[in-house]
Amino acid sequence: xxxxxxxxxxxxxxxxxxxxxxxxxxxxxxxxxxxxxxxxxxxxxxxxxxxxxxxxxxxxxxxxxxxxxxxxxxxxxxxxxxxxxxxxxxxxxxxxxxxxxxxxxxxxxxxxxxxxxxxxxxxxxxxxxxxxxxxxxxxxxxxxxxxxxxxxxxxxxxxxxxxxxxxxxxxxxxxxxxxxxxxxxxxxxxxxxxxxxxxxxxxxxxxxxxxxxxxxxxxxxxxxxxxxxxxxxxxxxxxxxxxxxxxxxxxxxxxxxxxxxxxxxxxxxxxxxxxxxxxxxxxxxxxxxxxxxxxxxxxxxxxxxxxxxxxxxxxxxxxxxxxxxxxxxxxxxxxxxxxxx
Length: 341
Fold this sequence. Notes:
single chain; alpha/beta
């Protein structure tokens, strides 16, 4: 079995460089049986993939993790549960951010996940014009000091506001951002700031919701609801259109396929390793399709760690990327697509 590389965050939490994403249980990717999902988590842990990413708004994700945590504790004991990591998010609607409001949200996640403290709390805020995100982060920092939170992190904040937050003395461990061969906005400004501040990047969308794979190499452009049947496919197809369109994307897949064949691996492995090799990137989040037969790719994902991209490989990939549109100009900095307009 491939040894899963790990990385340590600011507060000491050690996580896998591939994290298991639970967004797919939110309801936008088809029906998920919660009982089957709980059982499916064991396969990830058995493969050495012990880090799970979720959020308060991902349907029953926190409850599924909590049920698995309780089951693991009952069957294998405290040492076993100490070996898994649960990273969650709090994504409140803008409003008053009193100590009571903030602590109640954290207590709810603790209850759902059936843990005594949150390994990592990743905070998102919809509206920068409402400065109460600083109040929320202040209270979260206090709760961290009190032991309810280990790592305090952000999700989908831009570079300017990361600097603002850290200048207030709030210690941020990581930032979760979209980052892939198609969307490379983090390397424009965010990477340099994160390296200077000791902040790690956790990335999602690295496989473009499944588009960055052999399945779409040579495929006709998907356009209708039947072809774009999950929220991920809809979102990342829009990103591909903005980035350069289907024809350029096919050119990219052809190059990725060529590189993959030279390493006896898959397009997804190459795309994954390309981002894992980027500065400041601690790990990437790959979505689980828990309990859906044939939908998991655990062993394939793990093979990414055995890929060693050469300078020539990288140059081949970037020769295509240079032809794409400037997403920084068209969309804005990291996370700007998640701001209320």
